[in-house]
Amino acid sequence: MVYERVVLSPFEDASLLSICITKTDRTHARPRRAVIVCPGGAYSGLAPHEAEPIAFRFLAAGFATFILSYSLKEKAADFAPLSEVALAIRHVREHAEEYNVDPNYVFTCGFSAGGHLACSAGVLWDHPRVKALMQDAPEGINRPTGMILCYPVISADPTFGHLGSIRRVCGKENPTQEEADVFSLEKHVNATTPPAFLWHTFADKGVPVENSLVMAAALRRAGVPFELHVFPEGGHGLGLCDGTYGEPSPHNACWMDLAIRWVKDFSLPEKEITP
């Protein structure tokens, strides 16, 4: 078992907690698919019910799991969280043997603002600021295989975007629409964006369902596969929907089993698999 935290240098406020079952002579465990969990919190905090509880569910389902602690508040500006999640994905792939991970299958999973970060990892993986960090590594080492987006912040649209999160990543209280649109992820989806699993509730007032809908529409236009679930009831920030935060939502709790099945069934084209 590996249970350790590494600092994602040069970002001293960012760290990656690994929770992995390693290969031993007794288990002969095959490499596992990896899930990097990004808790939510509006880029001002990290919600604990969207961290370890999520990671341990994926661990129990047979995955290698990781929890990303990323820069917050004023330190969330200047592309810091995006750079940190890129470094986290690279770290998992570069240490795949140590973690008993299949480097071809490294997924991000994020909630609310953490969903924005998990999605940014896939949509903005080749942004110039990120590419500058990856100059000494193979192209695409920081691109996730797929994205699990749970009631995600996606858009900077003033009518339904979560503007508090957008302000923090912009580093300005009143960014121009042009500045905000850099982080309006539906505007940057293209054919290189990885597939996504999305879920939201119709009743979410914190981050309206339109965020997931515009992301799904953008993926469709780009020809990128996605799976989308919209549940009629339930507020924002439900996590596992078990009542740890907010009211229990047993009807919505199936999202976790659906996401696990999606990751397990995910198959890369032969040409994209690294031996």
Question: Which labels suit this protein?
Answer:
single chain; 275 residues; alpha/beta; Rossmann fold; eight-stranded mixed beta sheet; 9 helices; 19% strand
Write a compact overview of the structure shown.
The chain contains nine helices and eight strands. The protein is α/β, with parallel strands linked by helices and 275 residues long.
Can you lay out the helices and strands and say which pair or pack?
Blueprint (H helix, E strand, L loop, with lengths): L1 E6 L7 E6 L11 E7 L13 H9 L3 E6 L10 H15 L1 H4 L1 E11 L1 H11 L4 H6 L12 E5 L12 H8 L6 H5 L14 E6 L8 H13 L3 E6 L23 H11 L10
Parallel strand pairs: 3-4, 3-5, 5-6, 6-7, 7-8
Antiparallel strand pairs: 1-2, 2-4
Q: How is this structure best described in words?
A:
- By secondary structure, the protein is an alpha/beta fold.
- The protein has a single domain (2-266), classed as Alpha/Beta hydrolase fold, catalytic domain (Rossmann fold, 3-Layer(aba) Sandwich).
- It contains nine helices and eight strands.
- It has helices spanning 52-60, 80-94, 96-99, 113-123, 128-133, 163-170, 177-181, 210-222, 255-265, and strands at residues 2-7, 15-20, 32-38, 64-69, 101-111, 146-150, 196-201, 226-231.
- The chain has an eight-stranded mixed beta sheet, sandwiched between helices.
- Strand 7, helix 8 (210-222) and strand 8 form a beta-alpha-beta unit.
- Helix 2 crosses helix 4 (113-123).
- The chain starts with a strand and ends in a 10-residue tail after the last helix.
- The model has no long low-confidence stretch (mean pLDDT 96).
